[in-house]
Write a structure and sequence with these properties.
It is a single chain. By secondary structure, the chain is mainly β. 6% of the residues lie in helices and 37% in strands. The chain contains three helices and 22 strands. The strands form five sheets. A seven-stranded mixed β-sheet has the order 1-16-15-6-13-8-9. Residues 1-9, 48-52 and 255-266 have low confidence and may be disordered.
Length: 303
């Protein structure tokens, strides 16, 4: 199988000055994002997860496993990649995953991504480093990924896909951020066909609003080619959306658990305490000690 041309796309991305600060420095897209509501009626697991459920965990935004809309960019001057970015300490405590290996990407789409599509991840060790890139082979429909089907009533038969990267990356826990996503061939049009809207998104209440839904491209001829965020952090009234994709990590302990995307298994805050051990009825400004549903405790800063 041919190797994807993602390296060229990533070079273009990095040439725009992208670093670990990409999500924070991304331009907020203020135009209309065309989308169509969908309702999941059936789910299918990705092959990688079926073959070794106990070996893998998925890392992504809460809501990334629960699609409710399709999205696309048919009227943009160009759209080359869609991405999400998780920041250490904001979205996850990466130290909890030290020893895990990033193996690939889990994703779901509703249209063909084109002949030069592929999955990628960029590992940022610090705020200024341009990162280490992980690529997949070229994505080919029915060969290494399947399309989720939507009927004329908006009912979605959800098909998850898993694609491996060309090399694994072992997490140290000290990384600044992980970016991950899909490069694809944009289908331009007037917004009337499914091919123009290949991506699925869900609603998320997680932190990291800037990095949930990023697009690398050029909206109009008068705007620059850059990274744009589809969520406005200052807009408190509109639901924040995340792309339906997650990093696949290999679990060194062989435990069967899905973290970060499965609400039934994700540890949640059960009780807050002050630093001197007093039980709090609600989080207070400053450092709080949080007891989680899995029995662990951690300190969090409430601003």
């Amino acid at each position: 199988m041919k190797k994807t041309l993602l390296s060229m796309a990533a070079m273009l991305l990095l040439a725009t000055g992208a670093s670990a600060q990409t999500a924070k420095s991304a331009t907020v897209y203020t135009g209309k994002v065309d989308a169509t509501p969908v309702s999941v009626v059936k789910k299918a697991n990705a092959p990688m997860k079926k073959e070794g459920e106990s070996k893998y965990v998925a890392m992504g935004f809460e809501g990334s496993n629960n699609p409710s809309r399709t999205s696309g960019f048919p009227t943009w001057q160009s759209a080359l990649m869609v991405m999400s970015q998780l920041n250490n300490g904001t979205d996850y405590d990466f130290s909890e995953y030290a020893g895990y290996s990033i193996k690939g990407l889990q994703f779901a789409v509703v249209a063909d991504l084109g002949e030069k599509a592929g999955a990628f991840a960029i590992v940022y060790p610090n705020k200024t480093d341009q990162g280490t890139e992980l690529d997949s082979n070229i994505l080919t429909v029915d060969e290494n990924y399947k399309i989720s089907e939507i009927d004329d009533k908006g009912n979605l038969t959800l098909q998850w896909n898993a694609i491996a990267f060309d090399k694994p990356y072992e997490i140290t826990g000290k990384e600044f951020a992980f970016m991950y996503g899909l490069a694809y061939e944009q289908v331009k049009g007037s917004g009337k066909t499914q091919e123009e809207f290949p991506f699925l998104t869900g609603v998320s209440t997680d932190n990291g609003v800037d990095g949930m839904f990023l697009v690398f491209g050029q909206p109009t001829s008068t705007e620059k080619k850059s990274v744009y965020t589809m969520n406005n952090p200052e807009d408190t009234k509109t639901d924040k959306r995340c792309l339906c994709m997650q990093l696949i990590l290999e679990n060194p302990n062989g435990e069967t658990v899905i973290l970060g995307v499965d609400g039934s298994q994700k540890p949640v805050a059960m009780q807050y305490y002050s630093l001197d051990g007093k039980k709090l009825s609600a989080p207070q400004k400053g450092i709080n000690v949080v007891k989680m549903s899995d029995g662990t405790s951690k300190k969090v800063l409430v601003k």
